[in-house]
Amino acid sequence: MTYLSVGDMAQAYQLRRHNAEMKTLMNQLTDEMISGARQDTGAAVRGDFTALAGIDRSLAVLDSYAFATTEAAQLVSTMQSALETIQAMGAEIGGTLLSAATSSNPTMVSVTTADARERFLATVGAINTNIAGRHVFSGMAPDRAPLAPAEDILAALTAATATATDASGVVSAVEAWFNAPPGDGGYLDMAYRGGAPLSPLCTGPGESAALDLTAAHSQIRAALQGLAIAALVSDGALAGDAVEQMRLTQAAGEKVIGAETSLVLLRADIGTTEDRLDETATRNSTEIASLKIARDHLVAADPYDTATALEAVQTQIETLYTLTARLSRLSLAEYL
Fold first, then answer.
1. CB of 112 within 8 A of CB of 102?
2. What is the superkingdom listed in this entry's lineage (predicted)?
3. pLDDT digits (tens, 9 = 90+) for 133-172
4. Which residues neighbour 133 within 8 Å (Cβ) at sequence distance 6 or greater?
C-alpha cells in the first residue's frame, strides 16, 4: 500500500488556508445576516439578471425624477415667498397713497411717497432673491440677478419722464418704458438682466412642471409700476406743482391696488404648480419604495438559512482550532 505524507510546513499552510476560507465565509454570512441581502447576487437570481436590471434601471430613473422634483419644489417655493413679499409691499401702501393724494397735504404726500420708494427698493430686492446662488426669476440665466439695482431703474425712469409736464405725461412715459419691446430702450433693455423663460422640467413619466415665470413677466412689471411712480414723486418729479404731484400720487396708488389682483392670480398659478409637485413627489416616493421592496425580495438572504450556515461555520472554525492545537503538540521526542 502506498502512503502520501504531508510535511509539517505544507500541513501548516493547508490549515492556514482552511482557516482563511472559513473566516471569509463567516464574514460573508455575517454581512448577509446584518444587511438581509445575498452577497452573491448572481446566485441569488440564478444567473437571470433581467428582472434585477429592470428594477435597478427604474430606480435610477425615479431617482433622477425625484431630484428634479425637489429642485422644482424649491424654486416654486422661493418664487411664492418672493411674490408674497411683493404683494404685501403693495397691499400696505396702495390705500395710503390714495389717502395722501386726496388729503391736499404736501407733507403727507412727501412722507407717503418716500415710504413707497423704500418699498420699491425692497420689491426689487425680493425679485432678485436667490436660493443656493440661483436667481429664481432669471429664467435661463440663473447665475445673475434678474433686475438691475433699484437706483439704476429709478435713474432710467427719471430720464424717461424728464420731458413730462403733468401727471398724465409721467404716467404715460412710465407705462411706455415698462411695456417697451426689446430694443426700444425700456424695461427689458435697461432693467431686466435675466434670460429666456425656463423650459418645462420633467418630473415624472409624461409629467412636467412649468417654471417659466421671470422678472420680465407682464404681471411683475405691473406690480413695479405703481411703486416706481410713487418713488419718482419722492425723487422730485413735477416738483413745484403740488396739484400734479398729488394726481401722480393718486395714479401710483391706483396702479398699486390694481396690480394686487394680478399678483393674486400669479400666486394662485404658482400654488397649483406646488400642489402638483407635491403629488408627483409622493407618487415617485411610493413607487421607489415598492421597487426597493421588490429588489430586496430578489436578492434577500433567508435569515434562518443564513443563521444555520453561520452556526455551522463557527463550529467548523472551532474544530479547526482544536485540530491545529492537537497537531501542534505531536512530537516524536515526546512519544519516545
1. no
2. Bacteria
3. 899 999 999 999 999 999 999 999 999 999 999 999 999 9
4. 143
Contact 93, 249 (CB under 8 A): no
Report how far residue 41's alpha carbon sits from residue 37's, in angstroms, rounded to the nearest whole number.
Answer: 8
Q: What are phi and psi of 64, to 5 degrees?
A: -65, -40
Q: Nearest Cα to 21, choosing from 320, 322, 325, 323? A: 320
> Across-strand partners of 300?
37
Give just the sign of the alpha carbon dihedral 141, 142, 147, 148: negative
CA–CA distance, 20 with 13 (Å, rounded to integer): 10
* Phi, psi (rounded to 5 degrees) for 3: -110, 135
The pLDDT tens digits of the residues spanning 183-230 come to: 999 999 999 999 999 888 888 887 888 888 999 999 999 999 999 999
- DSSP-assigned states of every residue in 148-187: --HHHHHHHHHHHTTT--SHHHHHHHHHHHHHPPTTSSSH
Global pTM exceeds 0.90: no
Where in the chain are the domains?
A: 53-291, 302-336
In terms of Cβ atoms closer than 10 Å to its own Cβ (0-12, 13-18, 19+), residue 182 is exposed
Torsion of Cα atoms, 123 then 127 then 133 then 139, to 10°: -170
Superfamily of domain 53-291: f41 fragment of flagellin, N-terminal domain (1.20.1330.10)
Phi, psi of 204 (to 5 degrees): 180, 170
Here the cell at position 284 is: 415617485
